[in-house]
Amino acid sequence: MGIIQHLDTMAFNKIKLPANLSVLALFGLVLLLLQLMSSATQEASELSGIYNWLLLINIIGSIALLALVCANIYTLALQLKKHEAGSRLTIRMVSLFVVLALSPAAIVFYFSMQFLHQGIDSWFNVEIDRAMEDSLELSQASLDQRMRWHLKQTKLAAESLDASSEHLASLKLENLRVLSDASEMTLFSRPERIIASSSSTPSEILPHMPDKNAWLQLRQNNEFVALTPEYESQLMIRVIVPINSEKPHYLQALYPVPVRIADLADSVEFEFIRYQELNYLRHSLKISFSLALSLVLLMSMLAAIWVSFFSIRNIIAPVKALVKGTQAVASGQYDQQLPVTTSHDDLGFLVESFNEMTLRIAKASHESRIAGQEVENQRAYLETILANLTAGVISFDADNKIRTANQAAHRIFRIPVNQFIDQTLPQLTTRYPELSEPLKCMHRLMEQADDIWQQRIAFLGSKGRQELLCRGTPLFSQSGQRVGALIVFDDVTNLIQAQKNAAWGEVARRLAHEIKNPLTPIQLSAERLQRRLSGQLTDEYADMLQRSTKTIVQQVEAMKEMVDDFSEYAKPPKKNNVSIDLPELIQGVLALYALKSGIAIHTQFAPEPLIIQGDPVSIRQVLHNMIKNALEAINGNGNIDITVHRLQKNNTDFIEMALFDDGPGIKEEQIEQIFEPYVTTKAKGTGLGLAIVKKIVEEHGGAIWVDAKRRQGAGFILQLPAGHFTT
Amino acid sequence: MAFTMHCCANTKTAALLLIGLAPLHGSASPYTAEISQAELALQGQHYLLSAQIHYRLSDRAIEALKNGVPLYWTLLINLKQHRPWLWDKTLLSQTHTYRISYHALLNQYRWVAPQTGQSQSFATLSAAMEQMSNIRNLPIIDSRLIEPLIDSSQSHYAELKINFDGERLPLPLRPIAAIDSQWALSSTWTLWPLTK
Fold first, then answer.
1. CA-to-CA distance for A217 and A228, rounded, in angstroms?
2. Are A53 and B21 an interchain contact pair (Cβ–Cβ within 8 Å)?
3. How close B9 gets to chain A, by Cα (Å)?
4. Residues A141-257, CATH architecture
5. How far is CA A587 from CA A605, A614, A627, in A?
6. pLDDT (tens digit, 9 = 90+) per residue, B161-191?
7. In sequence order, what are the residues at sequence separation of 6 or more whose Cβ sits closer than 8 angstroms to the Cβ of residue A445?
8. What sign does the dihedral A213-A215-A218-A220 (CA atoms) show?
9. In the CATH hierarchy, which fold is given to the domain comprising A389-491?
10. pTM above the 0.90 mark?
11. Cβ burial, residue A145 (10 Å; 0-12/13-18/19+)
């Protein structure tokens, strides 16, 4: 018991006192219950009346503690299964504690049980048994002898009453009683029938009546002698003997046992009974003490184990928090702050250090996040700039795969940006065959170049003829290794067109100004010459003058016409943008040409709506020029075929008009320049017809080219973006 | 006027003790005493109880008795008024304690009623038990005290039980007595209605 208490106090020492008043209370309660039970075990204790209840309460308490411990073990097992932080350490500490606490307690328990059993057994032995029985027998023998003596005395008295009449007998009775030292003498004729009675205490009127058993025994043995405890502490010897007379009479005599003898006998009996009882209860006593001892051990142990759980959990708590905090930090949550314990032990120091560490990590992480954000903002800013550049920018990695491409690249090529990424230019070429020309060109230039390059690339794109100004550079790392390339390209179609137009406009304006001005005076002078000299010259000269003047006037007219054409070419486009039904317009234009025999014009229009968007006057001019050109080419005898249909190119709808004639055709070397001003195959003409056509077509976002594949006659292909059909 | 018993045996098990302490044996024990007859009769001014109780002492009880352990019984008698919605009202509750012990010196069994101071010695145990079995004209209460309490519109009944007092056994025996059927010597309650 002492050791158990010592262990309990050991358990207490580990607990921080203010936080664990409930534990203190529990221990107090356990100790109180055990103390009560221990007191109740004393027979004389007032508590012995509630012994069973105390036992029950202690058993219930033990069961409750056991349940508590089991619940704790179960929780711990669950935590261990979940690999919760600190569970292994808790198990180790609890097992250590249990082993440390249990082993000395078990040893003490074992020896206590041994001593208890041996101690109880040592109370009893054969000698004492014998002595007890002997002393009882001695008392009984002594009393027996006394009884026999009194029986003899009574018999003598009865003999003296023989043959006495009832009346005489009653007279003799008093005398006999005094002689024989009896306290009372009674004469009965039969049970309950008193003839006479004499008593030493005159106050007792009624004699002490024998009971049924006495009469029964008397009838059997013809005498009765017995010790009867007449009062609580007084022993009497009752003797009944028959009296020989004609009627059956009985004499009862009561002899008091001397007080001293009675006390001694009583004492012997008391001790004997007590010893007997103890001997009888020996087994129960052992069980009872063992039960009490076991309960004490069980309760203290269970309470200690529970408190060990409790206190170890307290000790482990900061470790657990540290492990959880470390795991959280490992998973990237840097804002971990553990509750700081007030104790300034190693664990407290560890917790403080952890908190400081997480603070620093959180600060560093915050700073790096801000820096990252800054970089990201910069990158986004650059990307925005790049995206909003009018020039397309494509960067390549070392394997010539596209790494980035901006919005302008998409705008120019009409390919979604995400389809650029991780593709090489040849791969894009196979997916977008209409862009094969510029892409191949770029690829070739990029592969070949080892310095900055620049190239103009013209191709027929979605918006018709497009011209790109490409600049490229290979990218080198600091170690001089080629790590990629960069291509910047700009759609300069409009710019070049504008430049050309401006140049030609300037030429035309100057021509008109410089040439047209002297033409009128030349014409007027020639007409004046003819008017003045026509009458004064001979017929021969007059005729010559008239012819020359006529020639001059005609040539001046022709020159004027030519200059007008120039100014027409140089005029800035005045577009009236409406929907035009191309077949209808072609038919209208053809109607103006009164065809000679030998010329056949075939038209073939696709059934779908063939609408373009543009200026009707300009388009009519285009058709005029082209038909006129064809008619002049076949020179009054031949066929002209006009076909119009719709086609799709680079996700855009185009209306294509093909015009073929079976004239002499165009020489190959002229094909390149045929649309330049002043290029003509004819003897007559300004050479501006097709230039104007090309200018108008390009102004409408279309393209025109010579169908070089055609071997007989000339063929022109004209493509204009399809317009929306409006009624 | 007399209250007589019309029905005798049947019983209500009065096991309202805590689980665990309640004797596990209950009425199933072969050693329970049995009240075979009970009667409450008015004689003069007093109600007198007469009853016939049959005791069945177990071997263990006899052995304890012979080894000097005194055994105590308590006779419990209640007069109750039936109430439909509440627990029954107790008009009277009396206990009479008896003790039987063995006197080694005289080789006798002694019956004592400590409340009244009556005592008697018997040569045999059965004779002593016989004394306890027959209860004759035990005065219970003065009729003048009880009659004002009786509401004639309600039904009344008497209940009787002989209870073996295990709590008066020596300490080491008590836990065993609480769970051992050999010590389940008490009778169950016997109820009988009281009629005028």
1. 15
2. yes
3. 31
4. 2-Layer Sandwich (3.30)
5. 11, 17, 12
6. 999 998 888 888 888 888 888 899 999 999 9
7. A453, A455, A470, A472
8. negative
9. Beta-Lactamase (3.30.450)
10. no
11. exposed
